[in-house]
Amino acid sequence: MAKTTLSYLFAGGYLLGLLVAYTAVGWILAAYAAPALMWMWTLALMVYVAWAGAGAIAASMLWVVSVVWIAAYTSATPLHVNWQGSTWAISLLGVWLFAISVVLMLAFAHPALQSLRWSRKSTFYRVVITTGIGLILGRCLYWSVLPGSSLSTSV
């Protein structure tokens, strides 16, 4: 009985961690004004990694590196932030390291949740729904706290 409760607590914590991590990803994509194509590729890769697991790490890393290189090439900086060169470079490095850790967290979701004996399909749906809600939540949070929004005037 205690092992089952502990397994459910661990699974809930892992899914909560995925939700928080992908909320941050959604916020970052919104902050950098990522185009719709980048959002779609991110969603597609997220679904692929959720299904393939650790086997999709190479493709995921290619996507992360590509996004960071594109951001570096276009000198992408978050909207509403006026950063100097070194601060901008450090932020890109931070985003890159964060993205790698989020990809690894998603890639190893199935083994982490395996103790609950969920089917692969069931785990996949739970992980995709959790991360999808996180992306949407992050985007909504970013736009709700911008200057001039209803939330920012009440704070």
Characterization of this structure:
This protein is mostly helical. 79% of the residues lie in helices and 0% in strands. It is built from seven helices and no strands. The termini are far apart.
Layout: helices, strands, pairs:
Elements: H1 2-31, H2 36-52, H3 57-73, H4 85-107, H5 109-113, H6 120-144, H7 150-154
Helix pairs in contact: 1-4, 1-6, 2-3, 2-6, 3-4
Using brief descriptors, characterize the structure shown.
155 residues, mainly alpha
Number of strands: 0
Strand content: under 5%
Main beta sheet? none
User: How far apart are the first and last residues' alpha carbons, in Å?
Assistant: 45 Å
**Mean pLDDT metric:** 83
Structural class given helices, strands, pairing? mainly alpha
Spatial extent as radius of gyration: 17 Å
Characterize the overall form.
elongated
- Uncertain segments: none
Determine the number of helices (DSSP H or I, runs of at least 4 residues): 7
Share of helical residues: over 70%
The domain count comes to: 1
Order of helices and strands: HHHHHHH
Summarize the structure.
With 155 residues, the chain is mostly helical.
